[in-house]
Amino acid sequence: MTMPTPPTGVVPPVCTPLTPDREVDTSSLTRLVDHLVTGGVDALFVLGSTSEVAYLTDRQRTLVVDTVVRHVAGQLPVLAGAIDTTTPRVLDRARAVVESGADAVVVTAPFYTRTHPAEIARHFRLVARDCAVPVVAYDIPMAVHSKLPAELVLELAGDGVLAGLKDSSGDEGAFRRVVLGKRAEPGLAGFAVLTGSEVTVDSALAMGADGVVPGLGNVDPAGYVRLYRACRDGDWARARAEQERLCGLFGMVTVGDPGRMGGSSAALGAFKAALHLRGVIDCPATAEPQIPLSAAETERVGKHLATAGLL
Amino acid sequence: MTMPTPPTGVVPPVCTPLTPDREVDTSSLTRLVDHLVTGGVDALFVLGSTSEVAYLTDRQRTLVVDTVVRHVAGQLPVLAGAIDTTTPRVLDRARAVVESGADAVVVTAPFYTRTHPAEIARHFRLVARDCAVPVVAYDIPMAVHSKLPAELVLELAGDGVLAGLKDSSGDEGAFRRVVLGKRAEPGLAGFAVLTGSEVTVDSALAMGADGVVPGLGNVDPAGYVRLYRACRDGDWARARAEQERLCGLFGMVTVGDPGRMGGSSAALGAFKAALHLRGVIDCPATAEPQIPLSAAETERVGKHLATAGLL
Amino acid sequence: MTMPTPPTGVVPPVCTPLTPDREVDTSSLTRLVDHLVTGGVDALFVLGSTSEVAYLTDRQRTLVVDTVVRHVAGQLPVLAGAIDTTTPRVLDRARAVVESGADAVVVTAPFYTRTHPAEIARHFRLVARDCAVPVVAYDIPMAVHSKLPAELVLELAGDGVLAGLKDSSGDEGAFRRVVLGKRAEPGLAGFAVLTGSEVTVDSALAMGADGVVPGLGNVDPAGYVRLYRACRDGDWARARAEQERLCGLFGMVTVGDPGRMGGSSAALGAFKAALHLRGVIDCPATAEPQIPLSAAETERVGKHLATAGLL
Amino acid sequence: MTMPTPPTGVVPPVCTPLTPDREVDTSSLTRLVDHLVTGGVDALFVLGSTSEVAYLTDRQRTLVVDTVVRHVAGQLPVLAGAIDTTTPRVLDRARAVVESGADAVVVTAPFYTRTHPAEIARHFRLVARDCAVPVVAYDIPMAVHSKLPAELVLELAGDGVLAGLKDSSGDEGAFRRVVLGKRAEPGLAGFAVLTGSEVTVDSALAMGADGVVPGLGNVDPAGYVRLYRACRDGDWARARAEQERLCGLFGMVTVGDPGRMGGSSAALGAFKAALHLRGVIDCPATAEPQIPLSAAETERVGKHLATAGLL
Fold first, then answer.
1. C24 forms bridges with which residues in the sheet?
2. What is the CATH number of domain A9-239?
3. Which of A66, C59, C103, D140 is most exposed, with minimal Cβ within 10 Å?
4. Searching chain B, which residue's CA lies closest to the CA of residue C181?
5. Is the Cβ of C2 closer than 8 Å to some Cβ of chain D?
6. Do A202 and D199 touch (CB under 8 A)?
7. Nearest to C262 among D56, D114, D143 (CB)
8. Strand pairing partners for A107?
């Protein structure tokens, strides 16, 4: 089996624009894809947490992948989440996105159940065995309540089970173990190590990461592309300046009142409000049962955009 | 809208027998249903955690509900889980089980996402609004990583959103707040408060609970029915003796080596091994990626059965 | 070594009254002791979580034990917490309370450090080896962030390391495993299994527990004594009625605004406000950095007292 | 009040060498201090987690600070932990270390109790009000089970309550918010932001951190000093090479079998084994109830030293 290299560089997790009655707004979605492609990104990741995958029905999920794959028409690789609780359900979701034309699937550890490292390993092995495209592991303890151990990731990479890692754990020490473990093993040259952080991209790339999957990249793809290129050029001062501008912009995820809404509502609400304010999407609605930003909160998102030079 | 009273009494969460290649074994499933009905249970709960709902594909889930509803043919009410991450997905699952003939749906708080009590309330309100049958809340923090506050449960019950509660939190103090809150409010007389515990059923019924949803009830339905009746008769000494026998039997969930497998593998593996040893189902397999019990572990399940007088 | 049986029955964890400038108010403390003794309790537990042990300096801790031991003058046994992070520090605290005359020490698992079941076992073994009085294990995961496994408690009891268990875990299923494990082993007849719950005392005693350590017992010792006696008499209807009255009274711990203060401030603040309103202590102050109840919150404590017939 | 700037640069948390019977080995301790000073470190931090502060009695704690302060004799600043559960106890510990001559105290959020952000703020304000030397906040969620919010740290810094932050949270995104928040506020120029990470020091310094408090710095102080200087010189390639060598060395904390011991035993056991193998301290014993490394595990520590060029 030849394992095609998964995408590297800037790979934004694409937001899913919704209509006011919570249907997928495909014309806003294709405008968003154009906005990202124009921004210079290297690949797209649909049906991740930032895409509100946990809130989309199966029909809507398929509509999203179909729409994006058809629209990019091979210009860029499209990764798609196959996010579900356990192996048989993930395989069903993986088949669906592969049928829609996804180039790779992104898969988490089992959730909802009480799991174990041995079961997590078995899960990825079984998914990869039966999946027609490369599998990227999605390490997101905030959602699945277990952390993928660095050693397990490297073992599965070495066995050809995993083609990449998207690390949204926020644990930069463990991330670095994967980066260094990859470098120590020539056979892992094609394994893609991607950070899901918005605010430590320069650090991650300086360590040797292959790319970044920033939710905030929906709002400012060109900024992340500049950041990525500065890092690749070894111009760390320029990278740091760009990263710090993006850190300021990322402050938008804190405008939602934590006494009134959860973290997903606040972060996804801010990204969508920003895309709406920038004229990319028609409606900033997030899926149910998320709580919408207030008018005052939305105004503060606008101030973040203005400060970052985006309005 | 008249809200039909949900079932009370002994309501086992029905295991899903699988074939060696992990397909639903419908003939074992109907034999298991007969075993439960013969045991005297009051209703059945399919597609809960004990049913391995998190491991069944949508097709398998529908096959399970169809099979059970057709087989019980109205002799007993059938509750069905509509277990998924958020409102739109839960509504899809609820429609499916209602179409298959479920008499009520059982729904958890959102999971995978970072949620908030206000979003949990909104979730249940939206599900109940669009669902054709009564909604029972499923409080299972171990799986969804948030606890349903007693006050929220009572508020939603008072508003006609919830028809019942299945409490698998293990927090007997909070459970009692719901029981006492219900009693204080005449309008909540029809609200069913059910414990998901196997080992504190006598306590829960003494407090005033309406019923019990014991996973171990698959293995010994008659035992739980005797326990329930002893409690209803106010014969607490008899209830305690029966409960203590069942506590001993429940020790089977600890035979699986925790160094080698997770808690779901151990508990569901033990229940299925016991059903296989008792001749109720053809194969003890659990779904992927769970780790099977070893031969020695299965033998220890047999000893638990023998001690409890079930072999 | 003969292991003296630790106290059973009603063993309130004694609040530590403070002056407005946060010094131990010894005259209020002895009045509180009189209030408890008059209420009919079987023993006293000082320097537990309800005593604000985590907020008292070593000097204040010693003053508390000295004051209480001298005042009860052998009428009742006095247990004392030796609450600190690890073995050497716990031993220092144990020596101090033994010197003050405590009849037994109460000890948690290690905290602050990243511990392990093998280290927890070693901790209790070393403490018991070097401690002149019986050791009672204090299972309080909310504080120490690990749970004492039932099997470990029974093993340590069997080896004469532990003389009793105070279970504040809220996990009634695990508590029952200890109760049943004790009963199965004749050598454990003297091992005291105590629940720390205020609201499931009838359940715990019906299961076979030996006693109860209720923080709310400061406010209404006579109520817990009546409850205990009703259980010992096997009059479960009377027990349940008394317990339900106490459950209503326990509602006082929710009057403190959780947006403004933590759970310790709310619970200890309510107990002290109630003791102050009942005229038992001079000042309701809690130790720094706890947040005081507002006047309106204190008024609601008073309503709980009135409803329970205590004002 | 003028708030003296706390130390920056490389500030190792000094291990506490013990004799085989677990007494403080003061001659090994002074040798260790010489080893660190010779290595070129900028200051010393005693009585932190790496010093086994949670395992030392009050007498031993005082002996440690006295010994180190007397031995360094003003050559370097000495920070000391005042690690205890709440405000009154922390103040007692702070007074003790100030009396011994510590130049600053390091203080965590309250632990063991159920706390709240408002109580955490009040705690630091009260400690700083009554403490004669500058207060550095110690953010260590792994130990205290709450995270210091970046905004709270900045607010307390702005009010002159905190002189610095030692961040052992592993959350580099939140760390960066503090670094950037400090830079945005000219009044905070003297506030020292220190990372407690061993493996992302180059990243933290590139972001703008003021220093590092690496436990592994006991083993290889010269390595961390070279790393710090390379960063200060802006020689990121040299910094990265040094950091990666130290990442390899840090692998020693994983030699202890996690099935047999907790994370503190494994990490502190490895550091002490390495110091013993390097001839700096006489005995590698860790305090009770930690589990010692086996001979085979110690041998693997030696291999890590050899690979890093330290044996």
1. C18
2. 3.20.20.70
3. C59
4. B248
5. no
6. no
7. D114
8. A137
What's the whole-number mean pLDDT along residues B93-115?
A: 98
Q: Do D203 and A207 touch (CB under 8 A)?
A: yes
- D96-114 mean pLDDT: 98
C197 touches chain B (CB under 8 A): yes
d(CA C273, CA C304): 11
Widest pairwise Cα distance in chain A: 54
Q: How close does chain C come to B65, measured CA to CA in Å?
A: 31
**D25 CB burial (10 A radius; 0-12, 13-18, 19+):** buried
At C47, is the secondary structure helix, strand, or coil? coil
Q: What is the ipTM of this complex?
A: 0.97
Cβ–Cβ gap D173/A200 under 8 Å: yes
Contacts of A283 (CB under 8 A, 6+ apart): A17, A18, A19, A20, A25, A28, A276
Count the Cβ atoms, other than its own, within 10 Å of residue D118. 16
Question: Comparing C-alpha atoms, which of C100, C96, C168, C94 is closest to residue C124?
Answer: C94
Using an 8 Å CB-CB cutoff, list chain D residues near A173: 170, 197-200
Q: What pTM does this model have?
A: 0.97
Q: Which helix (H) or strand (E) holds C153?
A: helix C150-158
Distance of alpha carbon C257 from alpha carbon A1, whole angstroms = 60
State whether C88 and D22 contact (CB < 8 Å): yes
Residues of B in contact with A262 (CB under 8 A): 113-116, 119
Is A176 an 8 Å CB contact of chain D?
yes
* C3: pLDDT strictly greater than 50: no
* Angle in degrees, CA A71, A72, A77, rounded to 5: 145
pLDDT tens readout for residues A255-276: 999 999 999 999 999 999 999 9
CA distance D173 to D182: 14
How close A8 comes to chain D (CA, Å)? 21
C-alpha–C-alpha distance, residues D99 and D84, integer Å: 17
Contact A55 B87 (CB under 8 A): yes
Q: With an 8 Å Cβ cutoff, is A114 touching chain B?
A: yes
Contacts of C203 in chain B (CB under 8 A): 172, 200, 203, 206-207
B169 touches chain C (CB under 8 A): no
Q: What pLDDT sits at residue C1?
A: 38
Per DSSP bridges, beta strands D9-10 and D211-212 are: parallel
Helix, strand, coil abundance in chain D, percent, nearest 5? 50, 10, 40
Q: Do D115 and C288 touch (CB under 8 A)?
A: no
Residue of C nearest to B174 (CA): C199
Q: Which residues, other chains included, contact C245 with Cβ-Cβ below 8 Å and sequence gap of 6+?
A: C223, C308, C309
Q: Show the tokens assigned to A247.
A: 């850190």
DSSP helix/strand/coil, D29: helix
C-alpha–C-alpha distance, residues A78 and A48, integer Å: 12
* Structural tokens at position A197: 């952080």
Domain boundaries, chain A: 9-239
Could you say which residues from 40 to 79 on chain D have a Cβ atom under 8 Å away from some Cβ of chain C?
49, 54-58, 60
CA angle A124, A142, D157 (to 5 degrees): 145
Q: What's the mean pLDDT in A79-90?
A: 98
CB A290 within 8 A of CB A261: yes
Distance from A206 to chain B by nearest Cα, in Å? 30
Which pLDDT band holds residue A5 (cuts at 50, 70, 90)?
low
**In chain A, which residue's Cα lies nearest the Cα of D251?**
A177
Question: In angstroms, rounded to a whole number, what is the distance separating the alpha carbons of residues B285 and B18?
Answer: 6
Query: Using one digit for the tens of pLDDT, what is the confidence trace for C90-149?
Result: 999 999 999 999 999 999 999 999 999 999 999 999 999 999 999 999 999 999 999 999
DSSP codes, A133-174: S-EEEEE-HHHHS----HHHHHHHHHTTS-SEEEE-S-BHHH
